[in-house]
Amino acid sequence: MTDALSPAAGFAPLRTERFTLRALRAEDAPALHRLVNDWEVAKMLARVPFPYPRGLAEEWIASTAVQMEEGSAWHLAITGHEGDREVLVGCVGITREPNGTRAELGYWVGRRFWGHGAASEAAGRMLRWALANLPIERVVASALADNTRSNAVLRRIGFRETGTGMQDFVSRGGAMPVRLFEAGREDMDAPAALPAAAAPEAAATGKRILLVAACALIDADGRVLLARRPEGKPLAGLWEFPGGKMHAEETPEAALIRELHEELGIDVTEACLAPFAFASHGYEAFHLLMPLYLCRRWRGTVTGREGQALAWVRPEKLASYPMPPADVPLVALLRDFL
Ligand SMILES: Nc1nc2c([nH]c(=O)n2[C@H]2C[C@H](O)[C@@H](COP(=O)(O)OP(=O)(O)OP(=O)(O)O)O2)c(=O)[nH]1
Question: Is 196-337 assigned to CATH 3.90.79.10?
């Protein structure tokens, strides 16, 4: 699986309501040093020495650019505004486990910015970005067992506590008890409520039935198009067949013609949509009923119009792309068929 991961210079800043999360710059060093060279901040952080040597700020900032280039970690400045002036509020970072499918989230906020939800806002955004954009399955985090603020932040943004442990804290000169946390895509926001008109109930489960039409576009080389669900949607980061919810009174074909135009900028005709199989899968909040069509002919160039990543995938490689559970049987059928 390949992912277009932006190197430091080209990293598009992540915005939240009040902050911008951007690559660290050499000129952030003085402000970073002022904020982190504070016992109240440093004592909560496992890898930060106290006192914090001034030169280390420059060195660390330079190392974050290298990590971003190689795609191993993203440490970002949390910046806000005071009047017209940009101010450094803290840092938030995500580090991938080498050769693994997990990443670790860490953050700190300068003392004068405490008490305003900055950590939740920045760390929550970083967590969602990571699950939607990196080739990872889970994010882990830890906090000192008695750091009630940080434990609350992690819970608030979607982490579950998985246990306790001991971790070395450079600033304390030894191991300290910590709480361990974990979050996956299933811990992110539940899907939004469905309009009643489009949601009959399945009598046996009491769950609404969600009708979604999906399409496997197949190119001249027999490759299948997958789209990555973008940040902000349920199941963000998983790969899916393009398509979407059927509107009330819409046929599956009409829904697909509309969705493929909106999402991919292509025009398909009903005659080119061949019914292939369907998924029937119970999610926690609804029961998904999803016809899957095959389409080999369309007009226009396939483009991710909603900023979603796209991949043309050989049938034998489909299984290496994490997909929603409903799609797993469809992928097996498609592989056998193509
Ligand atoms: N398009 C698509 N959706 C899938 C697949 N597998 C799967 O479980 N789903 C689920 C995820 C969502 O719960 C639902 C599709 O809803 P969606 O939110 O993407 O639909 P939409 O494009 O109409 O989105 P929106 O306008 O509501 O943002 O179906 C798949 O392969 N393709």
Answer: yes
**Three-state DSSP state, 165:** strand
Q: What is the pLDDT of residues 236-251, one digit of tens each?
A: 999 999 999 999 889 9
Asked if domains 8-187 and 196-337 share a fold, the reply is: no
Return the CATH number of the domain spanning residue range 8-187. 3.40.630.30
Contact 252 CB / ligand 1 (< 6 Å): no
Q: Is 278 in the pocket of ligand 1 (CB under 6 A)?
A: no
Say what the pTM is: 0.79
**pLDDT of 9:** 58
User: CB-based burial of residue 206 (10 Å sphere; 0-12 exposed, 13-18 middle, 19+ buried)?
Assistant: exposed
What's the complex ipTM? 0.95
Range list of H helices, 113-265? 118-133, 148-156, 252-264
Report d(CA 321, CA 144) in Å as an integer: 35
Q: Is the dihedral of CA 281, 283, 289, 291 positive or negative?
A: negative
280 DSSP assignment:
E
**Contact between 85 and 31 (Cβ < 8 Å):** no
| Cα of 198 from ligand 1 centre, angstroms | 14
Overall residue count recorded for the chain in this entry: 338
Rounded distance between C-alpha atoms, residue 112 and residue 114, angstroms = 6
What residues have CB less than 8 Å from 127, skipping those under 6 apart? 94, 105, 139, 157, 158, 159, 183
First to last CA, the chain: 20
Asked whether 208 lines ligand 1 (CB < 6 A), one says no
Q: How many angstroms separate the CA atoms of 125 and 13, rounded?
A: 11
Q: Is the CB of 235 under 6 A from ligand 1?
A: yes
Q: Which pairing describes strands 85-96 and 73-82: parallel, antiparallel, or unpaired?
A: antiparallel
Q: Tell me the pLDDT tens digit for each residue of 105-143.
A: 999 999 999 999 999 999 999 999 999 999 999 999 999
Nearest CA to ligand 1 atom 21: 244
What rounded mean pLDDT belongs to the chain? 92
Domain ranges for the chain, please list them: 8-187, 196-337
